[in-house]
């Protein structure tokens, strides 16, 4: 599920950077991509049993 979200945010960011009028879309896509990535990393670390 997180991989799908990352792909969607990346596509939105790319479309935003390609079309100058949609620069706001690139910014939103970039922020959402980074946020989803951070949340995914935190959740994955929480699942690992302590060593």
Structure keywords:
0% strand, 51 residues, mainly alpha
Averaged pLDDT: 87
DSSP summary, beta strand count: 0
Shape: elongated
Helical region count?
2
Domain module count? 1
Q: Describe the main β-sheet briefly.
A: none
What is the H-and-E element order?
Answer: HH
Query: How many angstroms separate the termini?
Result: 27 Å
Structural class based on helices, strands and sheet pairing: mainly alpha
Using the CA coordinates, give the radius of gyration. 14 Å
Percentage beta strand: under 5%
Low-confidence segments, ≥5 residues, pLDDT <50? none
Helical proportion, percent range: over 70%
Give the topology.
Blueprint lengths: L1 H17 L4 H25 L4
């Amino acid at each position: 599920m997180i991989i799908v979200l990352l792909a969607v945010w990346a596509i939105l960011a790319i479309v935003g950077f390609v079309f100058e009028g949609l620069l706001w879309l690139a910014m939103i896509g970039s922020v959402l991509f980074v946020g989803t990535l951070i949340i995914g990393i935190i959740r994955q670390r929480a699942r690992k049993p302590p060593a």
